[in-house]
Amino acid sequence: MPAERRPLSRTALAWMMVGEWRAHPGRVVTAALAIAIGVALGFAVHLINGSAQNELAQAVRAVNADADLQVHATTPLGFDEMLYPALARSPGIAAASPVVELSARFGAGPSRSLEGGGLTVLGIDPLRAAAVTPSLLGRGAAPEAGASGFVPESLFDPRAIMLSPAALSASGGKVGETVTITAAGHSVDFVVAGVLSGPGSERQVAVLDIATAQWLFGSVGRLQRIDLKFVGGADPATIEASLRARLPADAQIVTAQSEARRGDNLTKAYRVNLEMLAMMALLTGGFLVYSAQSLSVARRRPQFALLRVLGLERRGLLAQVFVEGALVGAVGAVLGLALGLGVAMGTLRFLGGDLGGGYFRGTTPDLVVTPLPVLVFFGLGLVAALVGSLLPALEAARAQPGIALKDLGDRNDPNAKPAAWWGLGLLAAGGAAAFLPAVGGLPLFGYLSIGLMLAGGVAAMPWLSRILLSPLQGVGRRSVAIDLALKRLWGAPAQAAVALCGIVASTSLMVAMAVMVASLRGSVDDWLTEILPSDLLFRVESGGFDADARARIASAPGVGDILFQKTQPLRLAADMPPLVLLVRPVDKARPDASLPMIGRGVAAPAGVTPVWLSEPAARLYGHEVGERMILPLGGANPQVFVAGVWRDYARQAGAIAIDQADYTRLTGDDRRTEASLELKPGVSPAAAGRAIRAALPPELAAQVQFFETSQMRAIALRLFDSSFALTYALEAIAIVVGLAGVAATFSAQTLARTKEFGMLRHVGVLRRQIIQMLATEGALLGAVGVIAGLGLGLAMSQVLIHVVNPQSFHWTMETRLPLPLFASLTVALIAAGAGTAVLAGRRALSADAVRAVREDW
Amino acid sequence: MSPPVLSLSALRKSVPGGRVLFSGLNLDIAPGEIVSIMGESGVGKSTLLNLIAGLDQPDSGSVAIDGVALESLDDDGRTRMRRDRIGFVFQAFHILPHLTLAQNVALPLVLQNVAADQATGRATTMLDSIGLPGRAGDRPSQLSGGELQRVALARALVHRPALVLADEPTGNLDPETAARILEVFVAEVRGSGAAAILVTHSERAAAVADRSLNLTRDGLVHAG
């Protein structure tokens, strides 16, 4: 009778695993750490992004409250307030509430930072707001609060203001005390009349009477927003369509959905890129697990054969290697989740919710942890380890026990040519994927391309190492040690590839990121030189310089050539973040004298206003040179001509440059907010600054901020480095993981060859010759790893530079190579390879040579 | 007369390249019988053991254990047959270095899903009877070659197989230790009631068997 089929023996699996881990704990720990690092990075980035998104949503709720629909101005200049009665009388509208919305800060005088104060001032009509957005109304000084329709009397007091808890805290004052608020170039004292109790109290929001806001902040007759409430049962789509037809060009419909999309669009590319980079780290972890498991399986081949002979079925062996991988993955994933939580907490505290990206300055979001991401990242860690264990497990199960049990040594045929088609095919597929377009604004095929290239590069390693080592075959004739090392590496390229895969994966990813960051930094540096040619820059935070102020500045002592410009936010689409309108003198015949142009521009036809789009604006809105577009400015809908595209790394949401004369003609706005000037010979920036302040009215002079060009450049590069802080951290981690992989792999391979060393000692090879052989092998493997990693990394960097960056951030750059980093990487990897092999070799050689050749395993 | 534990009929095996190791090989082994097989190096003794264990496939012919033809079983079926009905002793011992002696011996039992406590208990008893009392918790690195082969013998018998396959069990041992191991081997195999095939180069080892055969290209012939 055939023996009955029984379930797998858990005891046998447990004994084998525990025994192996007890014997080689270091290898298990290294593999688990590799997974942990990948999971930690991914989880941390996800948590930070989630918390930041939550913060953004709260911010939107805090300012927009609970209207059914809003009409927003496309620029901070607002729209004509006569739109309010027109909309209020529209069919389907139950109530409308006009709003003045201003960017502001506490205190008078110039701001201490470049990023603004983070306070939003809302001027409302309390009676209207009570019907449409009651949550904007606070408790006031009254003890009872909150009920819809409650209107605090204090809001009718022209010097009273209500603050959100965050704003109250930022002001440093208390209810009943006086605070100074600066907005639109005006500093005004208010008495804090109460605290807002609406949603999003984490944000800095100040609410006051609308007439007061218009009067005190120079916005009479203008509104930035109208909040609308529908009648019960009305169809929102019909109302929206009807309203859209009535809107002037400088007003736009905003819904909760479009606001959410806008917030999402603002940071989507940045978030997805960071998550992808973290996933790459996890992929590297998977390769290290593969490396560790392959070596472990190769070393235990006779042990597995014994188990097969004793009656363990193939699936049992498969299960053992898989369960080992799963446990390594599970331990690594749990460790990674804990580490990721810590990293997220630390990052939110020290870098903020944008990881230094500059999107949510001035806020510290609360950490939001939900069960789903925990499960997902645990699963990803597990899957990475299982995928890393798949090939070794199949290899273990496929081995013929009768042959493996004899452990006849290296069964590779040195003359067999390693197959190249698999690796080259993946590399070609990776190259092809790079040419595919973005999906939903994300470079998903770009990342697929990088993943395929990585897999192809690793799969091609046996073939590549054979090619690289072939020319060296004659080199070692005079030295036994070098000859042995070369012959082994050349004759067993698959083994070399196992050792190399972790190194190549981590090195290539690191090289790719380093080249991309160096290229972007270099391009930004050049761009800064081009856009900051003058000696001194200054700006006024709000309001601006009128013609009189500009004339005073131009005639101030020490001031040479001076150029005034204005920047202001401009909304082209409700679901996109606002871009920047750059108003400055532009030579229409030679725009490259005014802007860092990409390619040649086209002259606008007579009678059509030319504009020049920044590269991100052109890509985001799909405009090309020579096209016409609508520019929502000044209540009109002027058709403008795209006369050229210029390079801009500062404004990811895009920018549109327009000649100042055209802007003033279209809007009637003659104020300018920024200036750059040349100093007359012998005049210091400080002296010129003092002269300019002296020439201006005291209130305006107090708000002017000066920046020396060199200081500005340093600030820009500091912001750049801060934006890439996490990328640098990922690079550093990739180096550490890569070197740990080198150490673990070489050490395992060397210790597995104790029997070979014993044999060599028997036939008369000196101990130092074996050490020399191992050092040569290690150095050669390191060198092959560096060459392959550099080559693959450079190819992947081109995908990052020419596919991922343009598709994510809508800017292009020229490739720059961080040669000092390459040099130090080469030295580090070769030294690590040789050093680890020698250290492990000394340990392997410490065993008695006679015993080594007689050893069972 | 009891049916044979092992029955080989018209077995033929060649190696890659076409060289025929043996053909027309027939053999029946009765329960409790010990058979030694000798032959020159490369004649295919180990290959024959691999065929009997279902680790390799013959070109033609049949291998039957307890009346079950191995060629009728798939890989899992042959594996289960090995696990339940066959015990192995190897020249190179093959004792797992990271398991205790009791765990090494108990492996065939735990592969049959015998509870760990019960398996190690039976393994400890086996170690006691084979001359290693009180050593159940030791690690293999603490043992000599002869002691390791005793452990291997205990592992081969602990699950009471019908057939024990021993491939040069004394090949790595000095003559004195080899003699003691053979003595233990015969005593334990006979005590268990199992049949055994002893592949060896040593005439002294072959002499302990009930029947001695020589493997040639034409099959098995009685040793001189």
What does this 3D model show about the protein?
The complex is a heterodimer of chains A (857) and B (224). With 857 residues, chain A is α+β, with helices and mostly antiparallel strands. Helix content of chain A is 55%, strand content 14%. In chain A, the strands form three sheets. In chain A, strands 12, 13, 14, 15, 16, 17, 18, 19, 20 and 21 form a ten-stranded mixed sheet that branches. The radius of gyration of chain A is 33 Å and the shape is elongated. Chain B has helices spanning 45-52, 75-85, 101-111, 116-129, 145-157, 175-192, 203-206; strands at residues 6-14, 20-29, 34-38, 60-65, 68-69, 86-89, 163-167, 195-199, 211-216, 219-222. Chain B has a six-stranded mixed sheet. In chain B, strands 2-1-4-5 form a four-stranded antiparallel sheet, with no helix packed on it. The chains are: A alpha+beta (857), B alpha/beta (224). Chains A and B meet through helix 1, helix 9, helix 10 and helix 12 of A and helix 2 and helix 3 of B.
Main sheet of chain A, how many strands, which sense, barrel? Answer: 10 strands, mixed
Q: Could you tell me how far the N terminus lies from the C terminus of chain B, measured between alpha carbons in angstroms? A: 27 Å
User: Structural class, from helix and strand content of chain A?
Assistant: alpha+beta
The count of β-strands of chain A is: 21
Oligomer: heterodimer
**Helix coverage percent of chain A:** 40-55%
> How does the major sheet of chain B shape up?
6 strands, mixed
Could you tell me how far the N terminus lies from the C terminus of chain A, measured between alpha carbons in angstroms? 35 Å
Shape of chain A: elongated
- Residue ranges of chain B: pLDDT <50 for 5 or more in a row? none
Q: Give me the Rg of chain A, rounded.
A: 33 Å
Strand content of chain B: 25-35%
Uncertain segments of chain A: 112-116, 139-150, 356-362, 849-857
Biggest sheet of chain B, strands in spatial order?
Answer: 6-7-8-3-9-10
- Please report the number of helical segments of chain B: 7
Assign the structural class of chain B, choosing from mainly alpha, mainly beta, alpha/beta, alpha+beta, or little secondary structure.
alpha/beta
Shape of chain B: globular
Helix and strand succession of chain B?
Answer: EEEHEEHEHHHEHEHEE
